[in-house]
Specification:
Rossmann fold, 382 residues, 6-stranded mixed β-sheet, two-stranded antiparallel sheet, alpha/beta, globular
Length: 382
């Protein structure tokens, strides 16, 4: 036993020393943003601390693994219906969240699993929502496209419709004078929608604290941006609204640009537009194999050259901010969390039929709701 104790102590000392030897922070040169109607852009020299790096790594890895598990469950027909995966775009969500507060507001389209997680949802709640179970974040009634939590307004299934809603949230922020802002996300596929330009106009007129973010993953469904848009400079589309074009595969670029945009909004200058150049590894949705309009080589090239997780990992390892073993340990913990969540999502019961119409209204006496025919009566409880 004494020998074992000594060995254990020696290991503890070694591990303590190893941790002490790590660089606690490092400065990185990041890609310069393209700017529109701005005198200067975000900083190109940024500081990353070891703790931040480890946190971003864990969050991105959790999102990646969660989406891969969703892919697996979908192919097993355990998840049904619409399902749009976010793998490849993790740096966007993590970078944005790193520069805003949880008390700020966020609304996005239907590729929403990642944002549900960064906004405070748990992997367990997200996976159970995907399988339509009682323990899901929307009690199993929303599914992949309709997840919500505090200060997160979904998951919206209608292309572009979340943009005016986001401006409405920003109007509420301004009205209440609480120095909060709304991040309003849409894709390159939605960028040609008329309602987006109507929203730009109102937001600029009323100087709303809203960051419009176009997550440009290069394809709207199966149509490349070049075939869909007469101008692919999405960051200039606001015309009278300043814009930034950002490397959406680099978490530090997204973080700096969002910090810059948030400062712009909070100082009362009104809306700002950001285009994040990113890429999705999966097809548009699970019904799209994703290789009929782009080559496997193209996907592989993005994976090998600009994967957001690999880029962060390489930076941390080459600057002695973490060890390979430590990151592997995080991977193991993440895998376990995902497996446990998947186990829960496949064993948790489905919501009963009598709960189908609940929560239609807030704070109202219970009422009768007509079912699929005049004789089928269901009850709705607030």
């Amino acid at each position: 036993p004494r020998k074992l104790t000594l060995l254990f102590s020696a290991n503890m000392i070694m591990s303590a020393r190893t941790y002490a030897d790590f660089t606690t922070q490092a400065t990185f040169e990041i890609k310069k943003c393209d700017v529109f109607k701005l005198d200067e852009g975000p900083a190109t020299q940024v500081v990353l601390t070891r703790d931040e790096g480890l946190q971003y790594y864990r969050t991105m890895q959790t999102m990646r693994r969660m989406e891969l598990k969703a892919d697996q469950l979908y192919k097993q027909k355990i998840i049904r219906g619409f399902c749009h995966l976010y793998d490849g775009q993790e740096a966007c969500a993590v970078g944005i969240e790193a520069s805003i507060n949880l008390s700020d507001h966020l609304i996005t389209a239907y590729r929403a699993h990642g944002y549900t997680y960064t906004r405070g949802g748990t992997v367990k709640e997200i996976m159970a929502e995907l399988t339509g179970r009682r323990g899901g974040i929307a009690k199993g009634k929303g599914g992949s496209m309709h997840m919500y939590c505090k200060h997160f307004y979904g998951g919206n299934g209608i292309v572009g419709a979340q943009v005016p809603l986001g401006a409405g949230v920003a109007l509420a922020c301004k009205y209440q004078g609480n120095n909060e802002l709304c991040v309003c996300l849409y894709g390159d596929g939605a960028a040609n929608q008329g309602q987006i330009f109507e929203t730009y106009n109102m937001a600029a007129l009323w100087k709303l604290p809203v960051i419009f973010i176009c997550e440009n993953n290069r394809y709207g469904m199966g149509t490349s941006v070049e075939r869909a848009a007469a101008s692919t400079d999405y960051f200039k589309r606001g015309e009278f609204i300043p814009g930034l074009r950002v490397d959406g595969m680099d978490v530090l670029c997204v973080r700096e640009a969002t910090r810059f945009a948030a400062d712009h909004c909070r100082s009362g200058k009104g809306p700002i537009l950001m285009e994040l150049q990113t890429y999705r590894y999966h097809g548009h949705s699970m019904s799209d194999p994703g290789v009929s309009y782009r080559t496997r080589e193209e996907i592989q090239e993005v994976r090998s050259k600009s994967d957001p997780i690999s880029m962060l990992k390489d930076r941390m390892l080459s600057n002695n901010m973490a060890s390979v073993e430590e990151l592997k340990e995080i991977d193991v913990e993440v895998r376990k969390e995902i497996e446990d969540a998947a186990q829960f999502a496949t064993t948790d019961p489905e919501p009963p039929l009598e709960e189908l119409c609940n929560h239609i209204f807030c704070d109202m006496p219970s009422l009768e709701v007509r079912g699929t025919n005049p004789w089928a009566k269901l009850k709705s409880v607030s």
